[in-house]
Amino acid sequence: ATPTSIMVGTGKAAEHGILFKGGEHLENTKKINAIVLDKTGTITKGEPELTDYIAIDASEQELLQYAGSIEKTSEHPIGKAIAKGVEEKGIDLLQVKDFEILPGKGLKAKVNDTMVYVGTRKLVREIGLDPAAIEEKMAQLEAQGKTVVLVATPDKLLGILAVADTVKADSKEAIAKLKEMGIKVVMITGDNQRTAKSIAQEVGVDEVRAEVMPEDKAKEVESLKTQGYTVAMVGDGINDAPALATADVGMAIGTGTDIAIEAADVTLIGGSLKGVADAIYISKQTLKNIK
Ligand code: ADP
Ligand code: MG
Q: Where is it located (predicted)?
């Protein structure tokens, strides 16, 4: 393409809130035929709310206090939702120490010298507890698209909490448009299968990769590239940065983390997924007659 047509294209994109870091990315965008979409913060608003809490081996107060105190330190949307929900109930938070993030699984910290774990089933199984007794209830909440978080100490399951995130207003329409363009659309998330399927169904995504550990998101992108696809990755989180860098075109949600924006080739300022279809459309239009 000529430098002029590239400049016209990137200028036009900028008017639509789509910032290309360089002309070569505009050229690659034209060829995209597979798109990997992160779930939390990309398809959904990423501002979940605490909706349910069920105490098992603790009082409700204890369950909420322990979970809230630990999550107060977290920057994960799930953690923020839990801390906020607990504080809104007027429950005082406790001092925690030895706080540690367990990527893709949750976190742990000491409360009153007891180690408390907050996170996935996998995390709870790893410390040697069996969440089977509460499985049916968890499945019910997940079928509603909610994310269930377990709270445990080394010897007991204190209870579970659920948070619900909402889909962005135009995610469904944007995904329909991409599918109409003949593009393969895949949703990827660290969240569990059932929650992921429920959200995917709501927005019309047929292919889902759930329970993907942060370091494996880039591998999923790489695998599509190996199959011959020109792949765009769209994400907002720190977890998405390697996948954004691996994709042929990495697109960061402008309302997301700086680390994602730095790793990406394109920033979608408004945060809407419509920007993805617009970017492809503009790229095809401006580079129409150019090989
Ligand atoms: P995503 O791709 O959806 O952003 P992550 O890899 O960040 O997923 O997290 C995967 C899963 O780990 C979450 O769905 C949640 O179950 C659990 N998790 C992560 N961070 C936290 C946290 N601060 N508190 C509780 N659970 C968490
Ligand atoms: Mg995300």
A: Cell membrane
pLDDT bucket at 87, cuts 50 / 70 / 90: very high
CA-to-CA dists, residue 253 to 44, 129, 190, 247, angstroms: 11, 38, 18, 15
Complex confidence, ipTM: 0.94
Contacts of 140 (CB under 8 A, 6+ apart): none
Q: Which atom of ligand 1 is nearest to the CA of 71?
A: 23
- Does 291 score more than 90 pLDDT? no
Could you report how far apart the first and last alpha carbons of the chain are, in Å? Answer: 7
User: What distances in angstroms separate CA 142 from CA 164, 196, 211, 229, 238, one per listed residue?
Assistant: 9, 8, 13, 32, 24
Q: Where are the domains of the chain?
A: 3-45+167-286, 52-164
Choose, from 38, 165, 248, 278, the residue flagged as catalytic. 38
| Pocket of ligand 1, beta carbon within 6 A | 38-40, 71, 74, 76, 78-79, 104-107, 118-120, 147, 149, 189-191, 214, 237, 239
Q: What ligand has the least distance to the C-alpha of 120?
A: 1
8 A C-beta contact, residue 243 and residue 225: no
Per the annotation, the verdict on 130 as an active-site residue is: no
Would the pLDDT of 203 be above 60?
Answer: yes
Residue 57: which of 161, 160, 162, 163 has the closest Cα?
160
Q: In CATH, what number does 52-164 get? A: 3.40.1110.10
Provide the CB-side half-sphere exposure for 262 (13 A, CA).
6
Residues 47-66, mean pLDDT to the nearest whole number: 97
Distance from residue 13's CA to the centre of ligand 1 (Å)? 33
Residue 35 and residue 185 in contact, taking contact as beta carbons nearer than 8 Å: yes
* Domain 3-45+167-286 part of CATH 3.40.50.1000: yes
